[in-house]
Description:
Layout: E1 7-9, H1 28-41, E2 45-48, E3 50-51, E4 57-58, H2 61-74, E5 78-81, H3 91-96, E6 104-108, E7 112-114, E8 117-119, H4 123-136, E9 139-144, H5 147-160, E10 169-174, H6 184-193, E11 202-207, H7 212-221, E12 225-228, E13 235-237, E14 240-241, H8 245-258, H9 266-273
Parallel strand pairs: 1-2, 1-12, 2-5, 5-6, 6-9, 9-10, 10-11, 11-12
Antiparallel strand pairs: 3-4, 7-8, 13-14
Helix pairs in contact: 1-2, 1-8
Amino acid sequence: MTTGTLITVAPTGAESAKAEVPALPVTLDELLLTAKECEALGAAVIHVHIRDDDARPTLDGGRLRETVAALRESTDLVVQLSSGGAVTDPEAARLAVLDAGPDMASCTMGTLNFGDDIFLNRWEFIVDLHTRMQERGIVPEYEIFDLGHLTALQRLLGKYGLPHGGHVHVDFVMGVPGGMPGTTQALVAAHQALRDLPEGATFSATGVGRSGIPVMLASLSAGGHLRVGMEDTVTYAKGQPVESNMQLVARAVGFAQLAQRPPLTTAAARDLLGIRR
Ligand code: KMH
Ligand code: ZN
């Protein structure tokens, strides 16, 4: 059955520098403004990376807690904290992200080359993240950068059981140099592999950089959901830098409406993902 479209906004990420991308929201005020405007346009989930006073990525616990509280106060968005952080973040700090008590957290399902860096996600670390989220009632979004990550997820669920809430939701992060390409063919392959996961598993997809539009169209046509935002896309069209996250959310909403799969409300998103507020 085709449903409406779950739209996640990933407004900041850990990779772009504020000096190079001045429109990037890096302060709490900037993040809250972006969150409110994206929610008004049709986003239901926010995938959050935060920055320090110098606009550098941070996993500071106090700031994360303040951010979760502020987002809950000003919006009804599902708050998903990144446990991926930046490629330089140590495992302990990534696990401690859960202490901020978000509705959801990301959980990347394997190690990969990440451009010139390595995004390290050891099996034992993944198990730790998954089981701690089960214990604390946090719903994971499993980040799938490559096909083998779905095999790892199947193994994880088989050995350690379903996530909190019982629903499995994954995000195909496509087009990272070192991961699967952002193509229709790769999305179809990943979608096929979803059949090995528990019945009813859902997926979102995001294409990094130029692969954003083809991945969005492929995901909508395959019954998938969308993640957009300046974490993944800083160029709107050739020679045209992204002006704001709202521009990207508005485009995703337009595509979803064209596909006759309008954006899910935040309440419907909670139902889909198995989240209780
Ligand atoms: N910044 C990347 C190394 C996540 O948020 O969980 C990892 C990332 C995935 O963005
Ligand atoms: Zn992220």
